[in-house]
Amino acid sequence: MDYVFEKIWNETVTRISAIYGEKLDYAAILFLIGVQELGQDYQKFKKDQKVELMHIGICSLLVPYGYYTFIGRDEEGWPHFERNSALPHLTPPEQELLVRKAIVRYFQ
Q1: DSSP 3-state assignment of 69?
Q2: Could you give the CA distance from residue 51 to residue 31 in angstroms, rounded to a whole number?
Q3: 80 - beta bridge partners?
Q4: What CA–CA distance (Å, rounded) separates 101 from 2?
Q5: Cβ 24 vs Cβ 13: under 8 Å
Q6: The total number of structural domains that make up the chain
Q7: pLDDT of residue 6
Q8: Over its length of 108 residues, how does the chain's per-residue pLDDT go in tens digits?
Q9: Residue 29: its pLDDT value, please?
Protein backbone atom coordinates (compact mmCIF):
# COMPACT_ATOMS: atom_id res chain seq x y z
CA MET A 1 0.00 0.00 0.00
CA ASP A 2 1.24 3.47 -0.88
CA TYR A 3 0.81 5.22 2.47
CA VAL A 4 2.00 8.57 1.13
CA PHE A 5 -0.68 8.56 -1.57
CA GLU A 6 -3.36 7.38 0.87
CA LYS A 7 -2.49 10.31 3.15
CA ILE A 8 -2.76 12.74 0.23
CA TRP A 9 -6.04 11.12 -0.86
CA ASN A 10 -7.54 11.40 2.62
CA GLU A 11 -6.45 15.04 2.89
CA THR A 12 -8.06 15.77 -0.50
CA VAL A 13 -11.33 14.08 0.49
CA THR A 14 -11.34 15.96 3.81
CA ARG A 15 -10.75 19.30 2.08
CA ILE A 16 -13.51 18.71 -0.50
CA SER A 17 -15.90 17.33 2.12
CA ALA A 18 -15.42 20.39 4.33
CA ILE A 19 -16.84 22.57 1.55
CA TYR A 20 -20.07 20.53 1.49
CA GLY A 21 -20.35 19.88 5.22
CA GLU A 22 -20.40 16.10 4.96
CA LYS A 23 -17.92 13.34 4.16
CA LEU A 24 -18.05 12.64 0.44
CA ASP A 25 -17.29 9.28 -1.05
CA TYR A 26 -15.57 8.44 -4.33
CA ALA A 27 -18.83 8.47 -6.36
CA ALA A 28 -19.97 11.79 -4.90
CA ILE A 29 -16.65 13.38 -5.82
CA LEU A 30 -16.92 12.07 -9.40
CA PHE A 31 -20.44 13.51 -9.58
CA LEU A 32 -19.23 16.91 -8.32
CA ILE A 33 -16.41 16.97 -10.86
CA GLY A 34 -18.97 16.21 -13.57
CA VAL A 35 -21.18 19.08 -12.37
CA GLN A 36 -18.13 21.38 -12.31
CA GLU A 37 -17.15 20.37 -15.84
CA LEU A 38 -20.73 20.81 -17.04
CA GLY A 39 -20.34 24.43 -15.98
CA GLN A 40 -24.01 25.14 -15.37
CA ASP A 41 -25.73 26.20 -12.18
CA TYR A 42 -26.61 23.33 -9.89
CA GLN A 43 -30.00 21.88 -10.63
CA LYS A 44 -32.00 18.75 -9.96
CA PHE A 45 -30.67 16.01 -12.21
CA LYS A 46 -32.48 12.88 -13.32
CA LYS A 47 -30.92 9.51 -12.52
CA ASP A 48 -29.55 9.05 -16.05
CA GLN A 49 -28.11 12.58 -15.97
CA LYS A 50 -26.33 11.78 -12.70
CA VAL A 51 -24.73 8.75 -14.33
CA GLU A 52 -23.73 10.91 -17.31
CA LEU A 53 -22.23 13.51 -14.95
CA MET A 54 -20.09 10.81 -13.33
CA HIS A 55 -18.98 9.75 -16.82
CA ILE A 56 -18.09 13.39 -17.61
CA GLY A 57 -16.12 13.46 -14.38
CA ILE A 58 -14.16 10.34 -15.29
CA CYS A 59 -13.48 11.51 -18.85
CA SER A 60 -12.36 14.92 -17.60
CA LEU A 61 -10.02 13.30 -15.11
CA LEU A 62 -8.47 11.02 -17.73
CA VAL A 63 -7.86 13.71 -20.38
CA PRO A 64 -4.43 14.62 -18.91
CA TYR A 65 -3.44 10.95 -19.10
CA GLY A 66 -4.20 10.88 -22.83
CA TYR A 67 -7.11 8.46 -22.66
CA TYR A 68 -9.76 11.00 -23.71
CA THR A 69 -9.93 14.23 -25.71
CA PHE A 70 -12.55 16.89 -25.13
CA ILE A 71 -14.35 17.32 -28.47
CA GLY A 72 -16.90 19.98 -27.61
CA ARG A 73 -20.32 20.65 -26.17
CA ASP A 74 -23.73 19.76 -27.51
CA GLU A 75 -26.59 22.23 -28.00
CA GLU A 76 -27.52 21.90 -24.30
CA GLY A 77 -23.96 22.64 -23.19
CA TRP A 78 -23.03 19.13 -22.11
CA PRO A 79 -19.37 18.24 -22.76
CA HIS A 80 -18.45 15.30 -24.96
CA PHE A 81 -15.25 13.33 -25.17
CA GLU A 82 -13.60 10.95 -27.57
CA ARG A 83 -11.62 7.99 -26.33
CA ASN A 84 -8.09 8.09 -27.71
CA SER A 85 -7.00 4.65 -26.67
CA ALA A 86 -8.30 1.77 -24.72
CA LEU A 87 -7.62 1.95 -21.05
CA PRO A 88 -5.06 -0.59 -19.96
CA HIS A 89 -6.51 -3.79 -18.56
CA LEU A 90 -6.86 -2.99 -14.88
CA THR A 91 -8.55 -4.78 -12.05
CA PRO A 92 -11.37 -2.85 -10.36
CA PRO A 93 -9.06 -1.80 -7.48
CA GLU A 94 -6.44 -0.63 -10.00
CA GLN A 95 -9.10 1.33 -11.92
CA GLU A 96 -10.23 3.01 -8.71
CA LEU A 97 -6.64 3.87 -7.80
CA LEU A 98 -6.06 5.46 -11.23
CA VAL A 99 -9.19 7.58 -10.86
CA ARG A 100 -8.37 8.50 -7.24
CA LYS A 101 -4.90 9.66 -8.36
CA ALA A 102 -6.54 11.68 -11.12
CA ILE A 103 -8.93 13.23 -8.56
CA VAL A 104 -5.99 14.32 -6.40
CA ARG A 105 -4.32 15.80 -9.48
CA TYR A 106 -7.56 17.60 -10.46
CA PHE A 107 -7.80 19.35 -7.10
CA GLN A 108 -4.12 20.31 -6.82
Answers
A1: strand
A2: 8
A3: 72
A4: 11
A5: yes
A6: 1
A7: 96
A8: 799 999 999 999 999 999 999 999 999 999 999 999 999 887 899 999 999 999 999 999 999 999 999 999 999 999 999 999 777 889 999 999 999 999 999 999
A9: 97
* Cβ contacts of 30 within 8 Å, gap of 6 or more: 54, 57, 58, 61, 99, 103
Q: In whole angstroms, what is the distance from residue 108 CA to residue 94 CA?
A: 21
Residue 72's DSSP bridge partners are 80
Range of the domain at 77: 3-107
Q: Do 72 and 56 meet the contact criterion of CB atoms below 8 Å apart? A: no
Exposure string for 8-36, b = 16+ CB within 10 A, e = fewer = ebeebbeebeeeeeeebeeebbbbbbbbe
